[in-house]
Design a protein that fits this description.
Length: 358
Amino acid sequence: MELKVTIFDTIIIGGGQAGLATAYHLRRAGVNFIILDDQPKPGGAWQRTWDSLRLFSPTEYSSIPGWQMPKGDQEYPHKNEFIDYLSKYEKRYGFQIERPVRVNSVRRNGAAYDIDTDKGVYHAKTVVSATGTAQNPFIPDYAGRDLFHGPQLHSVDYRTNDPFKDQRVAIVGAGNSGAQVLAEVSKVADTTWVTLSEPHFMPDEVDGRYLFDKATQKFLQTAETGELDQDGAEKVSLNNVVMVESVREARTRDVLHSVRPFQEFYDRGVIWNDGSKTPFDAMIWCTGFRANLDHLSELGMTVDGRIKTEGTRCVEDPNLWLVGYGGWTGYASATIFGVQKTARTTAREIQKALETEA
């Protein structure tokens, strides 16, 4: 007797904020789906952030669709509060999630997909890739980096400042991660902050709400007209540093100063453009991430770490969607607040695609 094969309407690969936001809208659309998550427990990439991390927006800007994160004791939630929120969110909506399941590859099989995993093969009519970027940290290619004798770690592997006490530490990279790691490590170590350009700090009275709203306004205006008025000339960016409590405290210690990049490494530190040398005991790279798309490589559409999309929908294979990878899959889609719009649009497109094929 031939066994019946279950073919889901949609398989979502990834159980973080992007996957859950998409799942919420698919549930409302009546789509039959399952989430495959490679993590052993809820929380997505937030499980791999430093211990003291706090979000830089209050709960109403730090929630995914359908249910706002409950307010805590402080205005800006701790990362553990957000992880707990994601865990309860899954249970609240009763999503079918299997974990830990590592997806090895996605292959076309006629009108459907075969999703090969370490737990077997799953089948779906449509696929949403929401694996994020945290598993693919980016470190720039500096000459001689392998010569450096000290430890080097990316911010994804940073937890506390304890290992760096009384050391000379270079922190490379601007943005909120660079500023917050600098603020913490500088309490116990002699730090040097290396950034491509001078960091832009937001006024104390504003937070991630303002940052996101202004950056979105700038993006929409530029997209429509190709120009930016004088109000946008302040260069509002999602990389601007929000003055959370830890960064404000670092300012009182006068450590929020950065220098431009060095030229290369030597065994004990770095060599600057003028030929001078500075020894360091350790390097912390706060240099961002790249999309994690290895599981889609067999589809043969990945170019320079990306797949061509219109919005979140793959151009070459319109039954594949990519959610939450950053600007190329929807403006600010890698943020908690920003992914809401792209997740909603994605679910609508999937619903229409399934209705068309029915």
